[in-house]
Specification:
Length: 194
C-alpha cells in the first residue's frame, strides 16, 4: 500500500459516496487510476464496502454505556445469541483481563438501560460506565496516518519562471512601483546574455 492508496482510503473515509471522478480531481490522478486502485483495495480485502454513519442521539438513543461482563465460557454462546437480538447492544468484544466481554450499549432512557443490564446480568457479573461525552469520535486510524504523511510532505512550491517567481508586484520581491524599472533592467541583462 502506497501513499496514493492511503490518500484514497482517507478520502473515502470522509465520504464513501464520492465518485471516482471527484477523487481523481482531488488527488490529481486519472479516473481509471482511482478505479483500478479501489478495485485492488477491494480484492485485497482492505476495502470492504461502505458504512452508514447514524447520529444515534437524533434517533432517540440518548443514553450510552459500556458494560463489562464477567461470565464463564459456557454461557458465552447463549449470551451472544441473546445479544444479537437486542438492538440496544451495538457492539460486543471479547477482551483479556478480569472482564471477558465488553458491550457498547445505547438506550432511549435510563430505564431501558436498566432493562438491558438486567438481561445481561443473567450471564455474569456486570459493571457499567455511562458515557458522558465523546472526546475522540470513532475514526479510521488511516486518517491520522494520512495527516502525518501530509504534514511530512514538502510543501509544493510555485513554479519558477525564467524571469523569476511571480508576486503581487509582478516580478520577484520587487515592490509594485519598482516593477517597470526592474523589468527593464532584467530585459537589459537578458539582452546582454544573448
Amino acid at each position: 500500500m502506497d501513499t496514493l492508496d492511503l490518500r484514497i482510503l482517507t478520502s473515502l473515509d470522509a465520504d464513501a459516496r464520492r465518485s471516482f471522478a471527484d477523487l481523481a480531481r482531488e488527488l490529481d490522478v486519472s479516473q481509471p487510476t482511482i478505479a483500478d486502485r479501489v478495485r485492488r483495495l477491494e480484492s485485497r480485502g482492505i476495502l470492504r464496502g461502505t458504512m452508514l454513519c447514524v447520529d444515534l442521539a437524533r434517533l432517540g438513543y440518548d443514553v450510552g454505556a459500556f458494560v463489562r461482563i464477567r461470565s464463564n465460557c459456557s454461557s458465552k454462546r447463549a449470551m451472544i445469541e441473546m445479544v444479537s437480538k437486542m438492538p440496544q447492544i451495538i457492539e460486543m468484544v471479547s477482551v483479556t483481563g478480569e472482564d471477558c466481554v465488553i458491550a457498547r450499549v445505547v438506550a432511549r432512557s435510563v430505564d431501558e438501560l436498566a432493562n438491558v443490564l438486567e438481561r445481561l446480568s443473567t450471564f455474569g457479573q456486570t459493571s457499567t460506565s455511562i458515557v458522558l461525552g465523546t472526546l475522540v469520535p470513532f475514526r479510521n486510524p488511516l486518517s491520522v496516518v494520512a495527516e502525518q504523511v501530509e504534514a511530512a510532505r514538502p510543501a509544493k512550491s510555485a513554479p519558477v519562471r525564467a524571469d523569476g517567481p511571480r508576486t503581487l508586484a509582478g516580478r520577484g520581491d520587487v515592490p509594485r512601483a519598482l516593477a517597470p524599472r526592474e523589468a527593464a533592467k532584467r530585459g537589459r541583462v537578458a539582452a546582454a546574455r544573448r
